[in-house]
Amino acid sequence: MVIFAWLSTRQGNTVVYYPNRILKGLEPWEGGSRTRNPFAWIKEALSSTEQDVISMSGIDTAVYFVFMSTVLGILVLSGVILLPVLLPVAATDDAIRKHSGQTTSNGTFSDFDKLSMANIEKGSLRLWAFVACTYWVSIVAYILLWKAYKHVSAMRANALMSPEVKSEQFAVLVRDLPDVTPGQTRKEQVDSYFKSIYPDTFYRSMVVTNNKEVDKIWGELEGFKKKLVRAETIYAESQKSGGSEATRPTNKTGFLGLCGKKVDSIEYYSEKIQELTKKLEAEQKVTLREKQQRSALVFFTNRVAAASAAQSLHAQMVDHWTVMEAPEARQLIWSNLNLKFFERITRQYIIYIIVFLTVAFYMIPIGLISALTTLKNLRKYLPFLKPIVDQDAIRTVLQAYLPQLALIIFLALLPKFLLFLSKTEGIPSQSHVVRAASGKYFYFTVFNVFLGVTLGGTLIDTMKTIQDDVKGTPQLLAKSLPGNATFFITFVALKFFVGYGLELSRLVPLIIFHLKRKYLCKTEAEIKEAWLPGDLSYATRVPNDMLIVTIVLCYSIIAPVIIPFGVLYFALGWLILRNQALKVYVPSYESYGKMWPHMFKRIIAALLLYQLTMLGYFGVSQFKFTPILLPLPISSLIFAYTCSKKFYKAFCHTALEVACQELKQTANLEQIFKSYIPPSLIADKQEDEQFEDAMSQVSRSGSFV
Amino acid sequence: MVIFAWLSTRQGNTVVYYPNRILKGLEPWEGGSRTRNPFAWIKEALSSTEQDVISMSGIDTAVYFVFMSTVLGILVLSGVILLPVLLPVAATDDAIRKHSGQTTSNGTFSDFDKLSMANIEKGSLRLWAFVACTYWVSIVAYILLWKAYKHVSAMRANALMSPEVKSEQFAVLVRDLPDVTPGQTRKEQVDSYFKSIYPDTFYRSMVVTNNKEVDKIWGELEGFKKKLVRAETIYAESQKSGGSEATRPTNKTGFLGLCGKKVDSIEYYSEKIQELTKKLEAEQKVTLREKQQRSALVFFTNRVAAASAAQSLHAQMVDHWTVMEAPEARQLIWSNLNLKFFERITRQYIIYIIVFLTVAFYMIPIGLISALTTLKNLRKYLPFLKPIVDQDAIRTVLQAYLPQLALIIFLALLPKFLLFLSKTEGIPSQSHVVRAASGKYFYFTVFNVFLGVTLGGTLIDTMKTIQDDVKGTPQLLAKSLPGNATFFITFVALKFFVGYGLELSRLVPLIIFHLKRKYLCKTEAEIKEAWLPGDLSYATRVPNDMLIVTIVLCYSIIAPVIIPFGVLYFALGWLILRNQALKVYVPSYESYGKMWPHMFKRIIAALLLYQLTMLGYFGVSQFKFTPILLPLPISSLIFAYTCSKKFYKAFCHTALEVACQELKQTANLEQIFKSYIPPSLIADKQEDEQFEDAMSQVSRSGSFV
Q1: The CSC1/OSCA1-like 7TM region domain covers which part of the protein (chains A, B) (predicted)?
Q2: Does ipTM surpass 0.85 in this model?
């Protein structure tokens, strides 16, 4: 934090600490003064309203804060009762001391353990206090979750009924078009179909094309353009410094600029750009005409028509003409749009199976890899490493860490891998992919970190017992829980000290930015690219938070001292991320809070796990009235069912009463239509003014539109 | 059949044998001649097309015939392969004879058993033929079911896109209206809400009222009207026969006309009618103004708007403004429309639990009742029965049959009970209630008749074994199967001889009709009421057919001789019901084939049961390659999933491409609106001409409309 306070006031770092404000065209600091209180950000974060967050960072971020504050609320309210009630109750009993002869052999009981439920005599009447607290936590969770769901639903409705024109509210995505009848173009087919159903509200359609080729050429072209600007900047600088005898920058044409013929950069790039522009134009024409696919975007003249169309069944055969709400243009995944109905379903199930296998058995391939990559094997198959490996110091380090290395690499790559898997499912929008990946990551962390650590070796030994008696699982879990309380308290503390410290000070992006600026970046555009921040990256952030929720909830009764750590984690997280959301991260999409039902479901899952654990734990404590806890998991299920019945559908679709609100101005349909044309398909000449004046554009993409 | 051929040609019986034709205004016989071939109906049934069935009896009946012919097709195609292949294979082995020492003790093996799989040596290679046949039956079922689903889907689409104006296609049912804001009527609330969402296509709305009171008065009034007509007819007849001194009919005013003051019928009834008419009018006004409920019917100006509205989410809170397709006016259950969203869900689950308990434990209360109603108890608590009960002959009969009596009464009342339960769920349409009841009845028959008889006592003895080893159930089932083959063959045969014989000859309705005509009916209306046929009563018919399907499928491989009986059952059923559908039954509602997905699911359930049974049976036969059958249940599940994904949604909603077809004439919206006004709320004076001229009607029901 101190590092942040110092670093963030320096002029050169503003782009790292305030990129979101700069991109929005605001001053980095509100007052504009250079000498400001280094802790002003705390005040700013605390005083910022939800509306500020929505306007700076969108609904999705605001929903994330609702999640944070709901969990915080649950933990604080639980803590307020649990700490003063349970700690004295536990501390004044002394089961551990009495049975110290039996228990010290299992481990050393510290003062921490005295404050936990393990210190209660088995079958003692004091357990009633713990039962009451178990109920208290659940009831607090229900009330706050209900309020939060209602709040988020209203927030989503507000955003959707905003009088601003938003392109995606006028469009629907149509997939699984049937084959075209001969003599009819794809466009005619789509138009005539929708015109007959919506004679008044249909505006026009855009047939989806296979843009792989044209995207590639466009990417190359953009790359050369950047290089040209860079070469020109270098040349201009050298002219300035060296006068007339400025050296024109040169580069080599071969692989990575390392080999091949040496050429004059500016000439070479200009030539390449000209060449590629022609190629791009030709490819654009080919794409528009011949690479049309079996899906289309259909635009309507008003929001109600689009919202209603997105929810209605259009064809008698459900696997034809499937219609859904169009995602924002920027998060539409064009390459997934051509997949057929059953292909998507099949892919989905295959991915589920792969994920299940990954979650359950990820240790096997890693074990194999680390077994293969012993030093011996390395020396044998990669002889060029021999001189390095043979040095004593390196060998010791490698020998110790090689097995872990594979695991670390795997864990670092896992989110990317899950994102890739989710994309492969055939999901048409980026935000949905992130949600899907986040769900998968949640299962992975809860299953492997929480359950894995807790049950540890015992699980494998007792595998056979479990097979015979599924009811034993909670008991087994309960038995292994208290021993790991200290471990998890440390885990939570570590998470927020290291994680949030790094997060706030943004040390890594700062260092990368400064390195890049010094050695690589020459042009304005390159510098901007260097500091451009990402978004909040929900795919990993949410599951990590969920893991903390799960851990803290499950230990809340057994070792209530974990609650302050959980509170600290979410309070600090809320504060720091509020700052980051307002000033740093730039959301890369807007899904109007569709993330919330997923978060909700997972909090409920954590709650269920907690309740089942408690059931098992009370059973182990030989508490006669354990069945008194049975209504809890049932009521959790009923609560989740009721909530999803009442709220969930409004998160899948846009309610018509929401869509029918008046707009501030009449929508510019032409502009809405154009916002969906991918950049690689826009004719080069109008590239920058596509939104202002693109009447010629319409005629250009005639075959496409 | 002979009885039918003779009876149906007699003039007086035409109303019993051809009511549907008469009601449609057609001649009972096509040729119109009296002396016709007694078996002409067979020719007529065979030569009738699906279109005939649809026009005479609606889509639902046509779907029922698709079901019949699909099952028939599956059985015929299976039989064609199974009988010539499996019977010789089984007959030429002689496991039974070899092991006769061991097996005859269990029962007597007849020639029938020689033709079954029980005659195959355990672990014999001949079992491969049975494996192949198991696959054959499944594949035939898949292909025919797929075709049938496609066919029914097209039939439904055709009916829905018919150019005829159908009221229900222009209306939607809106439930769960939120509370009215003060100073606003319910009607204003509904109108303003829908006008803002559908400014162009909204026509008008009808607020649902609580009609219980007004229905009661109206029912009484109608009763008195009928009695008046009857009294007048009697008086006219007595005038004709007795000249001037005709006796005016009299009746008593007390209970059931048995006691009380004697009054002149015609005067008394006329007085009553006048009195009730006034009361009705007052009650109508009160109902329309004060008994408005939280639901409404909303009418649109075109079909697409209504179809689309029925599928869209209207309110952000899903439990408000829930919209669904309006059922036909005649099958709308007004009393269920006021139930709230979560009340409906709660009721549904409670009913599910009740049904589950009924299915699983129905023997317990019956056992209790029959234990209580022993002769001893009867004599004790109902002393007035003593003289009857004490007679020797009666006592013997009663002693033997009293225990069964409770069971018989229960089974007779079961369909009514299930219908009542389904209605209590809060389902708004009669056809849906019938579907729900039919599903419940299916579970009951399969669970109790099929599984109950098959497993019999063995199940209870081995209950503990099953609890430990769920996998054992198919094996247990398989072990008990062969012994019951003969029983079920008899069962199927009995079903079609007795059931269909009665069905075709309509002996029971014929006798009732003649009795009524002779002793009770005096007026034309009363005679018409006496012969008025019901509908096909799917609630019991479909589950009974399903039971046969399940039985025949499960035994098809084990004892292939059952197949001809199954074929005969469905072929005869098809033929006879074709006749009945064309000439007798009058459908009481039209759901456009919504019954089909239910039938489909239950055929799949039967198929799954069959495949699991075979898995168990091959296991018992010590066939080493039993796991080769494992893909079958999995592929059944995938097949069912695929079908429901592809077709099912079009059965829940009307596809827009279907709804957007042109109409033959522009719809008379006024008339559509009026068709939904329940008869009890129509002002008395225009009762008969409500459809022709009801402009005054509109102003009358002003507060209501």
Answers
A1: 347-618
A2: no
